[in-house]
Write a structure and sequence with these properties.
Blueprint: H1 3-9, E1 12-18, H2 25-31, H3 52-66, H4 70-86, E2 89-97, H5 98-104, H6 108-116, E3 124-131, H7 141-147, E4 155-158, H8 169-179, E5 183-188, H9 194-202, E6 208-211, H10 219-228, E7 232-234, H11 236-241, H12 253-258, E8 263-265, H13 270-273, H14 277-288, H15 292-305, H16 310-317
Parallel strand pairs: 1-2, 2-3, 3-4, 4-5, 5-6, 6-7, 7-8
Helix pairs in contact: 1-14, 4-6
The structure holds zinc ion.
């Protein structure tokens, strides 16, 4: 079978997606047709961001022009979900940023409920609140504390900029989140090396890592991830366009898998990278020589990592 058709037909999950970064271009364009007449230069395959600030500045510009209300979050989520269902994606985890609640003066609980109310039948969705390294401010503390009790919130995630020093608030907050029944994730091992991966595992007790690819630079960190059964939610095209890997054939996902680390595939911020989940699978096939069976093994990792009942997991793994 043709690889593209094989990828389309694979049952898939997507567990590393920023809602603001997944805003479908046509929705933004409809609001500001003149400003956003053409798609971003960053969609070109050979485009590289200068650094994280370059990437984040563009992304926050799109977000500020669109996410002015909880209703907009609902509209965006609805468009994302129907697109993913059509691509045979059955389970998703997506985060929305506390920094956007702060900047746009939105009520995080209303936004969380608005996202939840957009979930269609046939798609399992888990919602995460993403918090920056210095995000626990005096202004945001009441919302972050209340978030641990929001019934529609499934977990928390530590967002970039990864090089900003991580405040002392985080260790206690991550522990209390788990005590409150929330699943804890963190971005690490992208702009910072394996030491920061170790830090989020040992100090925060993070249960899954977004990116984490630079763990490959330290065998003792690989051992730590394997011992704790921690999966990495990997986004190769994001890693390439942000300069984490110098070229597609140097991406370490195969070495991570060979070392016994479960890796899943996601798009991260498709409004900035111009990628689909199918593109990520095609990246593995084209640049790293993944066979169809190896692509299916990566897809199965997503179902194994999913926060679902064992019945749902078993039923979906039986589709392969
Ligand atoms: Zn991310």
């Amino acid at each position: 079978m043709d690889t593209h058709k094989y990828i389309q037909a694979l049952p898939k999950t997507e567990t590393h997606l920023h809602l603001e970064g997944a805003l479908p271009w046509p929705l933004l364009q409809a609001m500001h047709p003149g400003k956003y007449a053409s798609t971003p230069a960053s969609w070109a395959p050979d485009f590289r961001f200068r650094d994280f600030t370059h990437f984040e500045t563009e992304l926050l510009g799109y977000a500020a022009d669109f996410f002015i209300s909880a209703q907009r979050y609902h509209d965006c989520a609805q468009a994302i979900f129907s697109d993913r269902l059509a691509r045979n994606i059955r389970y998703m985890e997506l985060s929305f940023a506390s920094g956007c609640m702060d900047f746009m003066n939105l009520d995080g609980r209303e936004v969380c409920d608005a996202i939840r109310s957009a979930v269609p039948a046939g798609l399992e969705v888990r919602i995460f609140f993403g918090i920056h390294h210095d995000g626990y401010t005096e202004k945001m503390a009441p919302m972050l504390e209340a978030a641990l009790g929001w019934e529609n919130l499934d977990g928390i995630d530590l967002h970039g900029t990864e090089t900003t020093p991580l405040g002392h608030w985080a260790q206690d907050y991550w522990r209390r989140a788990r005590d409150a029944g929330k699943f804890t994730k963190a971005h690490a091992g992208e702009f910072c090396g394996p030491d920061f991966v170790r830090h989020v595992v040992e100090s925060l007790g993070t249960q899954r890592i977004q990116h984490g690819v630079r763990a490959i630079e330290d065998a003792s960190v690989i051992d730590l991830l394997r011992e704790r059964g921690i999966s990495l939610d990997v986004c190769p095209i994001s890693n390439l366009k942000l300069g984490i890997v110098p070229s597609p054939d140097r991406h370490p996902i195969r070495q991570l898998l060979d070392a016994g680390i479960p890796c899943t595939l996601s798009t991260d911020d498709p409004i900035s990278f111009g990628n689909t989940l199918e593109d990520e699978y095609l990246f593995l096939a084209t640049h790293l020589g993944f066979s169809h069976e190896e692509l299916a093994a990566v897809a199965r990792n997503g179902f194994r990592a999913a926060l679902v009942s064992e019945e749902w997991r078993t039923a979906n793994l039986a589709l392969f």
